Amino acid sequence: MFFAVPRIWERFHSRVALAVADATLLQRLAYRWAIGTGEKRAASRLGGGVPSLWIPLWYALAQLLVLRNIRRELGLDRVRIACAGAAPISPDLLRWYLALGIDILELYGQTECAGLATAMPALAIRLGTVGLPLPYAELSLSAEGEILLRGEHVFEGYWNDPAKTAETIRDGWLHTGDLGALDASGYVRVTDRLKDVIITAGGKNVTPSEIENELKFSPYIADAMVIGDRRKFLSCLVMIDHETVEKWAQDHDVPYTNFTSLTRTAEVRDLIDKEIGRANAKFARVESIRAFRLIEQKLEAEDPELTPTMKLRRRYVSEKYRDLIESMYYGA
Predict the structure, then answer these.
(1) Can you give the pTM of this predicted structure?
(2) pLDDT over 80 (residue 90)
(3) How far apart are CA 54 and CA 324, in angstroms?
(4) CATH number of 197-327
(5) Which residues of 21-49 are buried (b: 16+ CB within 10 A; e: fewer)?
(6) Is CATH 2.30.38.10 what the domain over 104-195 is classified as, yes or no?
(7) Nearest-angstrom CA–CA distance, 270 and 170
């Protein structure tokens, strides 16, 4: 069994993208055929239909020749149960792992509910959701769409902080602070943190995590933070993936001396601009990123900009990079 936060699963994907870019023509063709075959199988599984006779046969051949070797190189060839949690993860990334032969099951919970509240059924995966409530977890939605939890797994309160406890537990329900939805089958979809939902100057509600997840599916983007609350349009701060962007720059003869100079090259900015354009194509115009800036500092796990799960701290980053953010709106 292997559990990891989304950043780790994203790093594995980036490693494969890096290896494929450096492979021979025959190896690249073999990878595209194998992963394409896996995607067809994944589509039939997710759609609930019965695959044609040829898909399992071709997929078995793809596993034998290509896919199992990729899993072995990643150290994941013996994984039987794979899980992700603690932060949102891109459905496209999960679909890629399904094609590779690894079913990543999303989990959802908080420290305040002793860990898990929902889990994805292994035989009934539904991308874009975090599965079904566990037997001991009673789940409901408030009028605002906030996820509420009740049960013996919910904590009694914060240590020596009755005011915070009363704010968090009301009428026996734990108010998670997460915005969510339930489908007809009872699957839970976590949209975003309530406090992170963006309301544009035009009054449109935008959930930044969906856009950020799409951006992070790019092997060249390690993390992204969408901005736009009370603004006329959305913008974004981007943290590049150092390893993959550095390799891309070397392959394209882009001169640079260090991480900062790498982020300042016109070629790298154009590369990220294309990746943002790819993501924009999947969203409505009001949800499109119209300006971006690259974070020029290489961030490590111990830096205050990052959470323990390697996500950008929205409030801290918004304050530290205030001038950089304002530069995207100045004169707009």
Answers:
(1) 0.84
(2) yes
(3) 53
(4) 3.30.300.30
(5) eeeeeeeeebbeebbebbebbbebbeeee
(6) yes
(7) 49
